[in-house]
Amino acid sequence: MSTSLAELLHEQLRDLFDAQEQYRGLLPCMVENCTHTDLALRLREIQETTAQNRQDLLDVCQLLKINPDGVTCEAMQGLIRETCRSATGIDDSATMDAALIANAQRIAHYEIAGFGTASAFARCISAHEAAAALAQITERAANIDQRLTRIAQGGWFTPGINHEAAIAA
């Protein structure tokens, strides 16, 4: 049990580290199941970003003298379970891609909330270097979310995956 904001931050970081580990394990399956070229590219970029997030978290943990291991992120377990469940039984490729985007965005939103909160905690305890690194991870997650939205909704001259899935129905 956390008794101070610093201890709460430590637990948050350990939880976020495990979340990144779990997400890294899921992403290859997501890439394998997608059919849209831009989405496959974006999911591969998310794999690279997740690896960078993991390394940045290790650096923050080292800076704060925290062992990142030993915590299971139950929230990420639930998000992964939902990702697997929602992709079951979808025959249409555009609908499958829309489901993959929806799940990747749920995970991005979890990351935005988690890393953003951890950054705020770090700022409050004057761990400014850690706060800056965590803010950078938060920004990466927000950028991923925006890019996924563009693929889902399309642009000026191209329909998005959501439109393609609606037509297929």
The main β sheet shows up as:
none
CATH topology description:
Ferritin
Could you list the spans in which at least 5 consecutive residues all have pLDDT below 50?
none
Counting DSSP H or I runs of 4 or more residues, the number of helices is: 6
Order of helices and strands: HHHHHH
Average pLDDT over all residues: 93
Helical content stands at over 70%
Q: Specify Rg, calculated over alpha carbons.
A: 17 Å
- Count of discrete structural domains: 1
For this structure, what is the CATH class? Mainly Alpha
Instruction: State the CATH superfamily name.
Output: Ferritin, core subunit, four-helix bundle
Shape: elongated
Distance N terminus to C terminus?
A: 49 Å
What's the total count of β strands?
Answer: 0
Structural class: mainly alpha
From the 3D coordinates, which CATH architecture would you assign? Up-down Bundle
> β content, as a range?
under 5%
Walkthrough of the structure:
The protein is mostly helical. Helix 1 packs parallel to helix 3 and helix 2 runs antiparallel to helix 5. The protein has six helices and no strands. It is elongated, with a radius of gyration of 17 Å. It has one domain: Ferritin. The model has no long low-confidence stretch (mean pLDDT 93).
How would you describe this structure in keywords?
single chain; 169 residues; mainly alpha; 6 helices; 0% strand
Task: Report a brief summary of the structure.
The chain is mainly α. The protein has six helices and no strands.
